[in-house]
Amino acid sequence: MQRRILLKTASLGALVGGISSWASSSAHAQDKVSAAAGPELPQKIQRIAFGSCIDQNKPQPIWRAVLATKPDLFIFGGDNVYASRPPWHLDQLQKAYATQAAQEGFAQLRREVPHMAIWDDHDMGQNDGGAGFAHKQVAKDAFMAFWQLPANDTRRQREGLYQAFQIGPSGQRVQIILLDTRWFKSQPKVTDERNAPGKERYLPDTDPEKTMLGAAQWQWLEMQLKQAADVRLIVSGIQVVAEGHGWESWGNFPHELEKMRQLVQKTQAKGVIFLSGDRHIGAVYKSKTNNQYPLYELTSSGMTHAWANANEAGPNRLGPLITQNHFALIDFNWPQKQIQLGFQNTQGEWLKRQSIELSELQ
């Protein structure tokens, strides 16, 4: 069995690389932090589009709306395909990637728009999965092949898929940090009352040995937060500061959430906004803290199948949930030192806008 897995892993690049006519050799072979094959990353950023939860078998008219906004960058926030039905097989993941690659709007975006990606549970291969998933290395190889990461990309040399990018000149510098909240994640505590409001799947676990990021990624994150940047977009597959529900979130490990808050304060990292997915809803959240500036979170989840009947207490949510298929937009008004977070639906209609003054994130 192990030999079969190794043979599949060895041939994975060729198998996934040839699934569609758009796949080509990397144009960024010397760039160790290339986001993915496709257009080079922009020199500066005015608009970023962001989304997650893309079922390769569902209609995807949303790409027309995304392309119409002409973003400088698109960030894929995880669950970029769905291949987690047990028992897990590499063939299932390969088929999911091939089906997604054939989606016309998706292929056009990859050709025309600079982009980067991180995975979540369904493209890693196990619903709510984490460190214990037996096939995570094979799934990681598939991810790297599909997104055409260069042969010398640092993600190939370490565990997990975390990476960071700096874009823009001083005064308009955006740091994008892609966290891997799957590879190292400990098993959360299962609820004692399934589907009860606020404890739907999991309960807070105070075990100090449990982790979200793992020691190496935590150390790496601290180094990233010490770098100069005007805005930092920290991408986490699962929600970070959102409260009031018992689904997967950083709140499953309260000590890890507090560690994140303390690290932002310790490093004096300015301009932090979290981007998350997973929940099949859209929302903006604002943390309550007395020790530092508030932490905002933009959750955009459900490009192909949002949760139409979703409901949550949302004590730190700003406004109602977005419960139709959508994607998020992040617009930077550098002269006015303002950021606008918003959502559009598949028709390109605005569903919500939320402005943040950069001075608030200091």
Structural overview:
It is globular and about 50 Å long. Helices cover 23% and strands 20% of the residues. The protein is of the alpha/beta class. It is built from nine helices and 14 strands. The strands form three sheets. It has a six-stranded mixed beta sheet. The protein has a six-stranded mixed beta sheet with strand order 4-5-8-9-11-10, with helices on one face. Strands 6-7 form a two-stranded antiparallel sheet. The protein has a single domain, classed as Alkaline phosphatase D (PhoD) (Purple Acid Phosphatase, chain A, domain 2, 4-Layer Sandwich), CATH 3.60.21. The protein starts with a helix and ends in a 5-residue tail after the last strand.
Kindly report the name of the CATH homologous superfamily: Alkaline phosphatase D (PhoD)
Number of domains: 1
Mean pLDDT: 91
Percent helix range: 10-25%
Largest sheet: 6 strands, mixed
Approximately what portion of the residues adopt beta-strand conformation? 15-25%
**How many helix segments?**
9
Shape estimate? globular
Report the strand count. 14
CATH fold field value:
Purple Acid Phosphatase, chain A, domain 2
Secondary-structure class: alpha/beta
**Low-pLDDT residue spans:** 1-34
Output the strand order for the largest sheet: 3-2-1-12-13-14
Give the CATH class.
Alpha Beta
Rg, rounded, reads 19 Å
The run of helices and strands is HHEHEHHEHHEEEEHEHEEEEEE
Q: End-to-end distance, in Å?
A: 53 Å
**CATH architecture annotation:** 4-Layer Sandwich
